[in-house]
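Chain particulars:
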Amino acid sequence: MGMSVPKSCFGYPLSIFFIVVNEFCERFSYYGMRALLILYFQRFLGWNDNLGTAIYHTFVALCYLTPILGALIADSWLGKFKTIVSLSIVYTIGQVVIAVSSINDLTDFNHDGTPDSISVHVALSMIGLVLIALGTGGIKPCVSAFGGDQFEEGQEKQRNRFFSIFYLAINAGSLLSTIITPMLRVQVCGIHSKQACYPLAFGVPAALMAVSLIVFVIGSGMYKKVQPQGNIMSKVARCIGFAIKNRIRHRSKKFPKREHWLDWASEKYDEQLISQIKMVTRVMFLYIPLPMFWALFDQQGSRWTLQATTMSGKIGIIEIQPDQMQTVNAILIVIMVPIVDAVVYPLIAKCGLNFTSLKKMTVGMFLASMAFVAAAIVQVEIDKTLPVFPKGNEVQIKVLNIGDSNMTVSFPGTTETYNQMSQPKDFMTFNVDNLSINISSTGSPVTPVTYNFESGHRHTLLVWAPSNYQVVKDGLNQKPEKGRNGIRFVNAFGESFNVTMDGEVYNNVSSHNASEYLFFSSGVKSFTINSPEISQPCGKEFKTPYLGFGSAFTYVITRKSDGCPEAKAFEDISPNTVSMALQIPQYFLLTCGEVVFSVTGLEFSYSQAPSNMKSVLQAGWLLTVAVGNIIVLIVAGAGQFSEQWAEYVLFAALLLVVCVIFAIMARFYTYINPAEVEAQFDKDDKEDYLEKSNPYAKLDSVSQTQM
């Protein structure tokens, strides 16, 4: 095939559009599948939170470790194009396998709506996940490098713009999929029994992956394909090993020093290879501090979402659930990338500042660090509003008088009188070791409360007659999860009843006792009381007031004088008051940091890599993300700070230190143009070759210069 001039469009190679569309579909497919995983593990496979989370994080880490594999295959064996195609096929198969694993009718032979052998589904979904991790990880470093390959010399500006568009496609794909996939999940389907439609929700990403593959193959004729150059990685490893061994062998003073430690390989390896390895090691050295950025960045999904659960999602007329705050990042990226590219950078250039790649990355780290300072400030605001829970060997107690007469209860150091159904004081805190409680009322003897109080927990003391009491352990020693509201019922009737609230059932709430808490999202809920004691004409339907975010209430159900039930609400934990809108500044800072850090990093890794190791450096870049993920797992596992804001400040400080170190390292980095360096070597080789083949040519040129 002759050298065809690449077709172009707006000054970009036409092939780029296929690559961008491919990336968009692939990311949609990946994030769509990932958004479902945790729910699929819990609800379909029936795993608990810890197992689900562990497998999920392992999968994400795998997806960032497999790029090394993909890069090796691409740069030393198949070339980028064939690697992308073959691994995309593996990927599509993986997506199909996981979709099949979620078909409940696959092993549901007795048609009762639950799979008969769950292990088949578990095995299939694990095989699917491994194939997906191989696929998505393997093509990641190749797609971005392959895109960069499409540009000619002198198209640096377009190439930089391409990496921005590429990053935009990634985020547009993830944004759309996080919105659309949950909608698919709530559809119902099934042959014999209808239930949540996981096969459809997993099937759409699988179909998109197939589309992504087809789009990529259609563009085949237009791509500029760089041939892989033998097993480059083993050559690199051998060369580095030889240099180190040789250096150690010649460590005495009598050997002259060499400029660079890799120059010790020059006895055995050619200069071009050595110079290429120098390029790679210089960049890899710069990468050492970078995982710290990702360690902060990856906490959006975990820590920041948890922070949102202690905030109120009512912003004006709209209501946001805590886990929807993550989409703010993707939305802001889609807005910020074009602004930064088309407005901010040109403005900085107009001011005559040379805003180099490494300077941009330093600024990105600084912004991320500031985002965590903002998060810490928000956390301090939240902490002011949080209820105080018992710590160490403290217990907290609250009294509810559900009887007909006044009661006096004495605690260590205080005595309180409770009227019938009075709003109790807040929880009182006592030390578990010297806790003695006595109940009395006029004209009756004192009753001591005998109960083994559990330290670190809240308890409710129900009293209804001088000698009748019941202690209930609340079981809530933190704000309800996910910004939901805890509701429990206390039965002041003579026998047990059932309560149904918003589809959840409180079974057999026994007389003079409290149910467990069940949790509900924000809004107004209605509940029904079913009891043989309630006569027909009575109303059994009740409505709660508007429930916000993160509150807990106890509803005491008593009998009115006409025998009908009445519900009275007591607040246990007040709803969140700090608005989630306060998280927007930290998301904004982090997103700006990401735009100047991440897009630049992709582009820098490409531009500084020798032509035969483009994918390898992209994989090195992705490896910093993987290490960042691992740092989070270690830090989160190692120490829980007593104060969340302190942890944010610690992370911010760490990143600032790393940012300063990186800035110093960047000062000493000299930018190169690998293509020019390689061209220079080719030219020298050519001259050497000519010289060998024609010894007189050299003399000739010398004599001419002497004339």
